[in-house]
From TrEMBL, chain A:
Organism, scientific name: Desulfocicer vacuolatum DSM 3385
Enzyme kind, highest EC tier: translocase
InterPro entries: FMN-bd, NqrC
Biological classification of the source: Bacteria, Pseudomonadati, Thermodesulfobacteriota, Desulfobacteria, Desulfobacterales
Tagged with keyword Membrane: yes
Pfam families with a match to the protein in the record: FMN_bind
Known cofactor(s): FMN
Gene Ontology annotations of biological process type: sodium ion transport
UniProt-recorded name of the protein: Na(+)-translocating NADH-quinone reductase subunit C
Modified positions (FMN phosphoryl threonine) in chain numbering: T207
Catalytic activity: a ubiquinone + n Na(+)(in) + NADH + H(+) = a ubiquinol + n Na(+)(out) + NAD(+)
UniProtKB/TrEMBL annotation, chain B:
UniProt cross-references to HAMAP family, sorted A to Z: NqrD
Gene from which the chain derives: nqrD
Protein name (record): Na(+)-translocating NADH-quinone reductase subunit D
Enzyme class, first EC level, given as a word: translocase
Family: Belongs to the NqrDE/RnfAE family.
Subunit description: Composed of six subunits; NqrA, NqrB, NqrC, NqrD, NqrE and NqrF.
Function: NQR complex catalyzes the reduction of ubiquinone-1 to ubiquinol by two successive reactions, coupled with the transport of Na(+) ions from the cytoplasm to the periplasm. NqrA to NqrE are probably involved in the second step, the conversion of ubisemiquinone to ubiquinol.
Subcellular location: Cell membrane; Endomembrane system
Alphabetized UniProt keyword annotations: Cell inner membrane, Cell membrane, Ion transport, Membrane, NAD, Sodium, Sodium transport, Translocase, Transmembrane, Transmembrane helix, Transport, Ubiquinone
Organism: Desulfocicer vacuolatum DSM 3385
TrEMBL record, chain C:
Compartments reported by the entry: Cell membrane
Parts of the chain that traverse the membrane: 57-78, 98-116, 128-149, 243-261, 268-286, 298-316, 328-346
Known function: NQR complex catalyzes the reduction of ubiquinone-1 to ubiquinol by two successive reactions, coupled with the transport of Na(+) ions from the cytoplasm to the periplasm. NqrA to NqrE are probably involved in the second step, the conversion of ubisemiquinone to ubiquinol.
Keywords: Cell inner membrane, Cell membrane, Flavoprotein, FMN, Ion transport, Membrane, NAD, Phosphoprotein, Sodium, Sodium transport, Translocase, Transmembrane, Transmembrane helix, Transport, Ubiquinone
Catalytic activities: a ubiquinone + n Na(+)(in) + NADH + H(+) = a ubiquinol + n Na(+)(out) + NAD(+)
Domain of life: Bacteria
Source organism of this protein record: Desulfocicer vacuolatum DSM 3385
Cofactor: FMN
Alphabetized GO MF terms: FMN binding; oxidoreductase activity, acting on NAD(P)H, quinone or similar compound as acceptor
Modified-residue entries (FMN phosphoryl threonine), positions: T209
GO BP annotations listed: respiratory electron transport chain; sodium ion transport; transmembrane transport
Name listed for the protein in its UniProt record: Na(+)-translocating NADH-quinone reductase subunit B
């Protein structure tokens, strides 16, 4: 009776030993790959973000594919990261928790400021950037870099044709009230003339995506309203 | 060893056509729906899966005499998962745009039945070299279907082949428009179904030497 | 002897199983039965249990569809001219737009039908006579003809032939075709201005359909009324929409004809109407948005969009509907329920009829299975 029991025990010991070895080897493999490749991955992610900020600011065309060096040099030269509190005061980056935004300067003159957008979509989060001109009311660009909308319907928000429509739209209506910019249902031509400037063409078959994105844009822009007001009063000049 | 002795060539080509994992065994359908909107992602996914099946079959076949049968599946999964994570990391580092489009589906290779299926059904009972070939063959068979499906979907759905527009502007002006269904997941279902139909009705479908070329 | 008959008599041997052209027997039979009564009665599904066979069955459906089709043509012209033209003008404009769509649908459909019949060696079946007419009626009049051709190809091949042909299909082929066009070319199918021909001179009635309204903050009934869609206009059909769907009146006339001749199951049609009425009443009472179709009420839901056309002619397709009587009530009711549900709470698809019928098509074998099980369990066992 003791003979099979012994081999049973030996088997178990073998299994544990084997499992331990496999785990250690696999751990080493994964850790090695992960740490070894981390710098590349971080650079990729930063680059992707920078590219989208440049696109939103209108420095790079929406459908252009700039090289890595171009992105980095353009970003370093023209974009400045900034942090504001909820009353629109600029603070030193990293000092306090605040709203981050990116300033696009050309020869020390503010050309646009880029606001990160995070909105609910139909199936998941929509992330992107919206850029406003220094007058604090005109949109100068919009990009989406991450979403999970239905391809061909809501997914069209990542396409250049949709994003181009944002350029030149106002977040203020004719009565000088903040209304944000909305996605129309269908073409903007079907809307009353005076509200067309606050709307962009909708995507056919993607009413819900438009609805959520409209709401998300409004919420995000509202948070940065203090900055926009300040800019408007100062004629496009900000003191940090 | 339950399977009949096959030549190395047969081992390799069997997975590509005759016992194709997607069209014959109907495995890996989920990812075949998800990553076949564009050929670029389909090709990368096919290569990634081929590397994983090949390597996992090779490793498991080499270890097959040592693996305790009680923890067999866990060991297989550990090996596969490690390989997949490494591949995912490599893609994120060097093919960032594509890895963004593939999103979770690279990670989900772990749960792809083809990989574990080949490890269980073949690698555990065969020598390293045939196992490697079997893994590569099945991976390539999967990739082949993916690329075929993606070709149709990208061509009809976006008018492109590997990202290059092939539909002349004059067609678009004449009223042509892209087939939106092809961009949605059901489009892939129809294409895969039609491919299986085509495969089954081809006269030489049962003879791998003839059709594999 | 009738000269036509003698031609058929003479050529008949060539098409029999030993004949030279036995491959084309399907085409031959289809041509012959087009003129004369076929000799054998129904041998494959759908098993119409009556003295009439599948062909006569289908011709009743065509007959019921004729008023709808003719009115559809007229209405397309009516919308184009904004109502300011003679009846003849309006009808001929509409016919000029609609007839090519129907012809393409029949032509391409028969091409596939004959191809499969020839390859598989079975008879050309008559189902296509109905499918080929129903499909165009569900389309907007501005649909490009090539999309009609692709749609009917998809409907016939993927909706019917892959399952083995008429009588074996899970889904209604006409709706499968429409679903294909709907998802493939959403711009041609769900835009606001696709429902009517544009006329440069006349600033006619708005091109939108009643179902795309809502969400303005006003009470929905007022929004619909203000847009010019009074209940009687919706009922009689003088408004933009798919070719055959606008006139609820004529669709229901067709439905009554089919119910009286027992071609369509009255259980499905009445069940569907009950489903719409009950669901929309419940939604009206529930606290929900008052400015969307959620609280539009039963009459608007019954008379707008494609519900009347769908429940009368597509839900009653005997192949894809359940075969048991109680199953038919359930099936019809749920079509009505899902139609209202989709219209009310999923504004991404303003028209829910197509999707609800296709959805219930898939469930009809299950409904049959369950109702049969229940009936069998209830039966007093023979002792």
């Amino acid at each position: 009776m003791s003979e099979p029991a012994k081999s049973e025990q030996a088997k178990r010991r073998h299994a544990v030993k084997f499992a331990a070895i496999i785990s250690v080897v696999c751990c080493l493999l994964i850790t090695g790959a992960s740490t070894g490749l981390k710098p590349f991955q971080q650079e990729n992610r930063a680059l992707d973000r920078q590219k989208n900020i440049l696109r939103a600011a209108g420095i790079v065309a929406l459908d252009a594919k700039p090289s890595r060096d171009q992105i980095q040099s353009l970003f370093r030269e023209k974009i400045h990261e900034a942090v504001v509190d909820n009353r629109g005061n600029f603070m030193k980056p990293g000092e306090v928790q605040g709203l981050s935004l990116y300033l696009y300067r050309e020869k020390n003159i503010l050309k646009a400021y880029v606001i990160p957008i995070e909105s609910r979509g139909l199936w998941g989060k929509i992330k992107g950037y919206i850029a406003l001109e220094p007058d604090g009311r005109t949109v100068s660009g919009f990009t989406v870099y991450s979403h999970s909308e239905t391809p061909g319907l809501g997914g069209e928000i990542e396409k250049a044709w949709f994003q181009k429509n944002f350029v030149g739209k106002k977040i203020y209506n004719s009565a000088h009230e903040f209304v944000s910019v909305s996605i129309a249902r269908g073409s903007v031509d079907s809307l009353p003339r005076d509200t067309r400037i606050n709307h962009v063409d909708g995507i056919s078959g993607a009413t819900l995506t438009g609805k959520y994105l409209t709401r998300g844009l409004k919420e995000n822009l509202k948070q940065y309203e203090a900055v926009s007001v300040r800019l408007r009063n100062n004629k496009g000049i900000i003191r940090e | 060893m339950s399977e009949m002795k096959l030549t190395l060539k047969e081992t390799f080509f069997r997975g590509i056509w005759k016992e194709n994992p997607v069209a014959y065994q109907v495995l890996g359908i989920c990812s075949a729906l998800a990553v076949t909107v564009q050929m670029k992602t389909a090709i990368v996914m096919g290569i990634a899966l081929t590397v994983v099946t090949g390597m996992s079959n090779l490793i498991i076949s080499m270890l097959r005499k040592k693996i305790p049968s009680t923890i067999r599946i866990i060991v297989e999964l550990t090996v596969i998962a490690s390989l997949v994570i490494v591949i995912d990391q490599v893609l994120q580092a060097f093919l960032y745009d594509i890895s963004k489009q593939l999103s979770v589906f690279v990670g989900l290779i772990i749960t792809n039945c083809i990989v574990l299926g080949r490890a269980e059904a073949f690698a555990l009972a065969n020598d390293p070299l045939p196992s490697l070939l079997d893994g590569l063959g099945n991976g390539l068979g999967y990739g082949l279907i993916l690329v075929a499906v993606a070709f149709v979907r990208e061509l009809l759905g976006a008018g492109k082949i590997v990202g290059f527009s092939v539909i002349p502007q004059s067609w678009m002006d004449a009223g042509y428009s892209h087939m939106g269904l092809m961009v949605l997941a059901p489009g892939a279902f129809f294409i895969i179904g039609l491919l299986v139909w085509l495969k089954n009705s081809l006269p030489g479908a049962s003879r791998e030497e003839k059709t594999a070329q | 002897m009738n000269p036509l008959k003698s031609i058929f008599k003479k050529t008949d041997p060539y098409f029999q199983s030993q004949g030279r052209f036995s491959r084309f027997k399907g085409i031959y039979l289809a041509t012959r039965t087009f003129f004369f009564l076929p000799s054998p009665v129904t041998t494959t599904a759908p098993h119409v249990r009556d003295h009439i066979d599948l062909k006569r069955f289908m011709s009743f459906v065509i007959l019921a569809l004729l008023p709808v089709t003719l009115f559809g043509m007229f209405n397309v012209g009516y919308q184009y001219h904004g109502g300011n033209a003679t009846w003849i003008d309006m009808f001929s404009t509409g016919a000029g737009q609609v007839l090519p769509i129907i012809l393409v649908s029949y032509g391409v459909g028969f091409f596939w039908e004959i191809l499969f019949a020839t390859v598989r060696g079975h008879d050309v079946t008559e189902g296509l006579l109905v499918t080929g007419l129903l499909f165009p009626l569900t389309l907007p009049p501005t649909i490009p003809l090539w999309q009609v051709a692709l749609g009917i190809s998809f409907g016939v091949v993927m909706g019917k032939e892959v399952f083995g042909g008429t009588g074996r299909n899970l889904l209604n082929p006409a709706l499968t075709a429409r679903a294909f066009v709907f998802f493939s070319y959403p711009v041609s199918m769900s835009g606001n201005n696709v429902w009517q021909l544009s006329h440069p001179g006349v600033d006619a009635l708005s091109g939108a359909t009643a179902l795309s309204l809502g969400g303005t903050g006003e009470i929905i009934q007022e929004t619909i009324l203000n847009a010019g869609f009074s209940l009687d206009r919706l009922f009689f059909g003088f408004h933009p929409g798919s070719i055959g769907e606008t006139s609820a009146l004529l669709c229901f006339v067709g439905a009554v004809f089919l119910m009286v001749t027992r071609v369509a199951s009255f259980r499905i049609i009445l069940g569907g109407i009950a489903g719409v009425i009950l669901t929309s009443l419940v939604f009206m009472v529930l606290p929900g948005p008052k400015d969307t179709w959620f609280s539009a009420g039963p009459l608007y839901h019954l008379f707008s969009g494609g519900f009347a056309l769908g429940i009368s002619f597509m839900a009653t397709d005997p192949v894809s509907a359940p075969g048991t009587n109680s199953g038919r009530w359930i099936y019809g009711f749920f079509i009505g329920f899902f139609t209202v549900l989709l219209r009310s709470v999923n504004p991404a698809y303003v028209e829910g009829v197509m999707l609800s019928i296709l959805f219930m098509n898939i469930f009809s074998p299950l409904i049959d299975h369950v109702t049969l099980k229940i009936t069998a369990a209830r039966r007093i066992p023979n002792v």
